[in-house]
Amino acid sequence: MDDAAEYQKLRRNMQVAQGTSEVHTGLQDGISTVVYTAEGEELTINCEAESESSGQRDQWSRGVEFLFSCIALSVGLGNVWRFPFIALENGGGAFLIPYVIVLLLIGRPVYYLEVIIGQFSSRGCIRAFDMAPIMRGIAYGQVYSTALATTYYACIMALTIRYLVASFSEVLPWTYCLVEWGKSCVATGVTAANDSSIVQGVSSAELFFTQTVLREPETLEDSGLGTPSWDLVLCLLATWVIIGTVLSKGIRSSGKASYFLALFPYVIMIVLFIRAVTLPGAWQGIVYFLKPQWSQLLNPHVWYAAITQMFFSLAICFGTLVMYASFNDFNKNVHKDVIIITTIDSLTSILAGCIIFGILGNLAFETNTEDISQVVKGGAGLAFISYPEAIAKFKYLPQLFAVLFFFMLLVLGIGSNIGMASAVVNVVKDRFTHLPHWLLALGTSIVGFLCGLVYMTPGGQFVLNLVDFYGCTFIALVLAIAELLAVGWIYGVKRICSDIEFMLNVKTGFYWRICWALVAPGLMFLVLVYMLFSYEPLTYRGVEYPADYYMAGWIIWGLGVLQLPFWALVTIFQQPGKTFGSKFRMAMQPTANWGPLQTQKFEAYILHRKREADFKSPRGGYLFDNIFG
């Protein structure tokens, strides 16, 4: 609405239609007209569609495509690459119990909440915060963090392609030792499986990764990052060509691709699991992974690791789920989908953990190492060291299994990266609707490739570790707390439950309400406090960074988190009120056109809110009413 005074009156009268005595709705030329009569005044609201005059938005060709796309997004490198090394760093079984508890108290409730918001509003993650405009900076920070994650996930995919090409060699290059690696090298080929002369050493798979593929320095102090490796640059280029091609086809094409992206990796994982459990010493590693260590439940660092891993594993609080759900049919019952996706995701993480720790148990057996946690270094290298270890021990056709495995890893990376890159593309598309989709996909791919060149340098893994912590993990935790406060307390648990009832015709149970309002934000806040009080300078492989890199890390973090106060101030001063207090109060309220994007459903929603205001009186104080009302 153009007139500021009329807009202010609209916002004042429209919120929950309090005090409204009569409502009339109509539809003409694709514009919904809602007429309120309140306190003797008549107020006409013209609500045009959010992105198109018809109120339509692209949708999945079939409802099941949303399920498979979310599986492809969530079940990815976070499960096969990140989960095992996070578990390795936190004591195996000591990490597993907190992870499952966090899944039930934070992961699943937040996943359901974000899917509901996206489906109800049919908006991308930025415009979804029309429910609480003052908190829109959360979405901008999440998109920023997602963009950073997209760049380094593409780096992992580039390394995967490098290994995929190497897998076509007559002899797998990580199965034997080179002279320049020294006498401490332990060949991982099947012929070296029972060499009793080895006392302790470093596996050839690890040396191949660090010395041949990465050319990694011991520190960044003297050599710096170095120049990008041309072979890895070509692999990175191939990665972005794949991502850009899929992105350019739009949501319907990526939905069809999701069938393969979601299902194929399990075929290879089952084969690898069978092979892993038959290796000598494998069960020692699996027991280390699955055996609970109850005393560690009181270790706050383990809970911090479990919560941050949950963000990566389920892809919550990055804006991608809201974006995917926005393409759903408005009345799709997503409750079952959420239960299926979160269960499959966690079981996949456990399956990947069993494979990895089975291999680590075997590696400890062969290198005469008693402490499994010291067998191999953590970080991104785990997927490119331990998995090749298993493949090297296949007596028959190891090259075939190497090709299948790294192709599987590539597929997992594509599934995750398409979701993250799509979130970034759709944010730009929602803002600049006149730009063709293929041009946005091309621009995203070019920028992603150029940013990814830094990871292709010898010191690239140092940078990846830095961006992973400051640009993703740290930012995600802060913005996730803010998101739950925005939805649970500014917009309100009571209202989100009312929206769910309007959309799905189901009541929301106390489990979801309590988790959204209290448990999830409370646990995350405690972990954040612990993280801040116990903060120590970040290291990679036990090596500290130069001071300039820490400064860069904090700048990366600040650019993400400061989106919240910046956009809050912008939103407040955009309001038409005369005083700061009135502007602030209006910025806390949903926008005038908040609700379903489809015109007819929006009209029905206005009437639904009117009936809610007429027949439901507050119960108890605000806190009690917000959760249980």
UniProtKB/TrEMBL annotation:
InterPro entries: Na/ntran_symport (IPR000175), SNS_sf (IPR037272)
UniProt keyword annotation of Glycoprotein present: yes
Membrane topology: Multi-pass membrane protein
Compartments where found: Membrane
A Gene Ontology molecular function term of the record: metal ion binding
Transmembrane region(s): 66-84, 96-117, 138-165, 229-247, 259-283, 303-326, 338-360, 400-425, 437-456, 468-490, 510-533, 553-573
Residues holding Na(+): V75, N79, S313, L412, S416
Keywords tagged on the record: Amino-acid transport, Disulfide bond, Glycoprotein, Ion transport, Membrane, Metal-binding, Sodium, Sodium transport, Symport, Transmembrane, Transmembrane helix, Transport
Keyword Cell inner membrane assigned: no
PROSITE patterns recorded: NA_NEUROTRAN_SYMP_1, NA_NEUROTRAN_SYMP_2, NA_NEUROTRAN_SYMP_3
One GO process term, biological-process aspect: amino acid import across plasma membrane
Protein task: Unusual broad substrate spectrum amino acid:sodium cotransporter that promotes absorption of the D isomers of essential amino acids. Neutral amino acids are the preferred substrates, especially methionine and phenylalanine.
Recorded family membership: Belongs to the sodium:neurotransmitter symporter (SNF) (TC 2.A.22) family.
Protein name: Transporter
